[in-house]
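Risk mitigation, structural track. In case the binding assays with S-adenosylmethionine fail to produce interpretable data, a predicted complex structure has been prepared as a fallback.
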Amino acid sequence: MSQRKQEVRDSFQKGAKNYNIVAFTRSLGTQYEDYVESKLTIEKNSKYIQGNILDLGVGTGRFAQRLMKQETNIFGVDISPAMLKTALKKIDRHKVNFIVADIEHLPFKSDYFDLVISFRVIKYLPDPSTVAKEAYRVLKEGRVLIVEMPNKNVLYVEVPLLITRFLKFIGIKDTPLKYYLIINFVTLKEMTNILQNSGFRLVNVLTTLRLPHPVYERASSELRVTILKNVEKGLSQILPPTAFSRSYIFCCQKLNSHKQVKVSD
Ligand SMILES: C[S@@+](CC[C@H](N)C(=O)[O-])C[C@H]1O[C@@H](n2cnc3c(N)ncnc32)[C@H](O)[C@@H]1O
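Fallback model:
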């Protein structure tokens, strides 16, 4: 296992117990982020939720739990056993198939899944195309991958990225911004190319929130969240649909032969 992968696994091993609080329930703002992400990923793509479903980097199971229905058979893969242990505190282990594995090497046969999803995960991998290719392999023909990736083309990413790279260049690595050295950000065009080069046909791209995560993290009152929602609404009316999104949710279909569509940023 690469050093970077080990660091990612260790950090989730350490943070697993408090992950749900830190990521989703810490403030009204983070609860709202979770609501938006879930709505965009699950409700907007509800017609694809069926059969064998694989959640790549399932973590503490927020999507696995919401995708559980009578007609679905949920599989979740994660590199951190501690994250899966936390997930199994709220999910009945007989109703899911959780496996400790690396999503770059999936322990499943080809053409098995009806849906593959991955949220807040492949940004940890140096090369997202390895996961895109694995997802393509395990999906059945005509089925979809729904995957989220953070956007590089926003100022609150571009500026810290430049600063951290400069600091690394002059030998300073241990800074509060070191997160930016581990995370992989992509442009809309880059991710579209990665998915298309892996064989997928792009079905739709949804944009998530436009304001940065720390703003929501600190929103502790109903009033603040209401203000943020209205700012988001205002921005989405002024800006083009894919501009300045914090991240994108790509829905793409496995088709053995198809015509590719060109997407520009
Ligand atoms: C930020 S959490 C997201 C969890 C979940 N998808 C969600 O949205 O709540 C990222 C998860 O990806 C897992 N992960 C990171 N790299 C991985 C890899 N190479 N293989 C499998 N899981 C990985 C981590 O252990 C962690 O549980």
